[in-house]
Amino acid sequence: GVIDVINGKLKPIAYGVILTPKDKKLPDRLVIIEEDLKSLINKFKPTHNTVSKCVMVLLIFFKLFHLSLSMKESEFGGYVINQTQLSFHLCSIMNYTVIFINIIKNEKVITTLKSFMVPCLFIGALMALLIPTEGAEFVKPRVWQYMLIHGTLVFYGIYLATIEKVDLSIKTYFNNLKILVVVALVAFLMN
After folding, report:
1. Whether the Cβ atoms of residue 13 and residue 4 lie closer than 8 Å to each other
2. pLDDT tens for each residue of 125-169
3. Separate counts of helices (H) and strands (E) for the chain
4. How far apart are CA 25 and CA 32, in angstroms?
5. Residue 74 burial (CB < 10 Å; 0-12/13-18/19+)?
6. Which of 7, 63, 164, 190 could lock onto 88 through a cystine, CB 3.0 to 4.6 A?
7. Model pTM greater than 0.70?
């Protein structure tokens, strides 16, 4: 949905769903979704700040939902977070990066992180959707949460690449590889 804030009050502007024909193949359906998203973004022209904050709120909600599903009973009473669910993999790092770019004010760091995120979101989150590690039994809340997180990350990658026009030059590619090596090292140590 699209909302506007007028005098501190939320006013609905438009809402709906993007439907794709079920007889089409997945790549064709993704193209339809991308084109519809582009036309909505061009029509309503949300600021990057708005889109980024919406993505941030969604990812925080999904992460909290994920953690709540993985809680286990403590031997001392109550519940604790299952520490195996706190893994530092690429998509989790992208979740934290979205939050981080919404908090910091340094434009150079934000630009660098956005250019790092685009290929990671396309490759990492899209691969996670195509080869789900949580399975594809949609009767389980964990599967829905998994698909929603990765779908949100793919959407944000499309948004950054097409609307924000993030720099994806060869120079940025090599900078991104350096960042990826550091991220891989941190993930290896944290996991």
Report:
1. yes
2. 888 888 777 777 777 777 787 888 888 888 888 888 888 778 888
3. 7, 4
4. 11
5. exposed
6. 190
7. no
